[in-house]
Write a structure and sequence with these properties.
globular; 13 helices; binds flavin-adenine dinucleotide; single chain; 2 domains; TIM Barrel; eight-stranded parallel beta barrel; alpha/beta
């Protein structure tokens, strides 16, 4: 892992830096590149604006490792009312949630109790509820959580990360429940005994996991989502899908708001199912630092914003 990336990921955990940065106008200006605004309505307006391009959306409220029942009740109720807004506005928008926002630090059962009503409401509207994957200390609990949720509701999807050594085994286990899987490379600072230090290995494992998902999709045993801006990988997997006879509606490509915008539009125009993940909320610091870490050159954008 590069020095810049590991420094940015370390900084993402600093409460002092978080409180400094979130108050600075220049930082708030820079964040706008990846997030249309802090309010739910900002995210929904941005989702609406993408509909003419046939780009679906996913929204997520930033914040992680919240504890305490009052907090998790508030998050659950917020997402339930967000689903109401989405239905009123008839948006092609799904939700993605972080398990630690909904009680995973307390217990798997507490978390499942909070997520189940969101998943039920989301499924009522024909939408999949997506579950994010956080750092490697949460993987076992998140897999168990997903299996529990999936047993009660088919329209739940899970993120898995190609940088972890363990993920091929996890995927084989998950295939037993015919999962919807959003495959990503992984965004956290992980030690060398759990994750590939070299990006080329993460990329190679991404491709082999992607192929495994497409083979499973061909037999009706998985719904693959490629969550990446790596166009070499996207183009490769899209071509493989065609070779295997996996039709465009049987898999999706998901990207983040503000990244590879032209490519998102081009894929959608070619008839592929594309969704753009839009974040909102005022607790954006750790998430924003992870976006900077993915491309340390983005730091110059922040520096420039300080002088604009
Ligand atoms: C829909 C979606 C959901 C995600 N959910 C999770 C999750 O639940 N858990 C998790 O650990 N991670 C998640 N991630 C983040 C993911 O793990 C990667 O950190 C992130 O997608 C960057 O990796 P990449 O696949 O785009 O590949 P990279 O090889 O990092 O990037 C490929 C190219 O994309 C462009 N690019 C990538 N990132 C940026 C950026 N920040 N700014 C500007 N350009 C950029 C660059 O041109 C780069 O060369 C998610 C990503 C997406 C798209």
């Amino acid at each position: 892992m590069s020095l810049a990336r590991s420094a940015l990921l370390r900084a993402s955990k600093s409460p002092w830096l978080a409180s400094q940065m979130t108050q600075r106008a220049f930082a708030r200006r820079a964040v706008k590149r990846f997030m249309p605004g802090e309010r739910l309505s900002d995210a929904l307006d941005a989702a609406q604006a993408l509909t003419p391009a046939k780009i679906g959306t996913i929204i997520t409220r930033l914040g992680e490792t919240l504890t305490g029942e009052r907090n998790t009740d508030e998050v659950r109720d917020h997402y339930l009312s967000a689903l109401g807004e989405i239905a009123t506005r008839r948006l092609p928008t799904e939700l993605s949630v972080k398990p630690t926002q909904l009680g995973l630090d307390q217990s798997i059962d507490d978390c499942a109790r909070q997520i189940a009503p969101i998943a039920a409401r989301s499924a009522q509207d024909g939408k999949t509820l997506w579950v994010d994957m956080e750092d490697s200390s949460y993987v076992d609990r998140t897999l168990a959580l997903y299996e529990q949720l999936k047993a009660g509701n088919d329209k739940v999807g899970l993120c898995i990360q190609s940088y972890l050594f363990r993920t091929p085994k996890d995927l084989e286990r998950l295939l037993a429940v015919k999962p919807a899987i959003r495959l990503v490379k992984g965004a956290y600072a992980e030690p060398a005994d759990v994750a590939f230090p070299a990006k080329k290995d993460t990329d190679a494992q991404y491709v082999s996991l992607g192929l495994r998902l497409l083979e499973a999709a061909r037999a009706g045993g998985a719904f693959p989502v490629f969550g990446t801006h790596d166009m070499t990988i996207v183009n490769h997997l899209v071509a493989k899908a065609a070779d295997l006879g996996v039709a465009p509606g049987q898999f999706e490509v998901h990207m983040l708001y503000g990244i590879r915008t032209a490519e998102q539009r081009a894929l959608a125009a070619q008839g592929h199912a594309v969704r753009c993940l839009i974040s909102y909320g005022n607790n954006w610091f750790p998430w924003y630092m992870r976006r900077l870490a993915e491309r340390p050159a983005n730091v110059w954008f922040v520096v420039r914003s300080a002088f604009m």
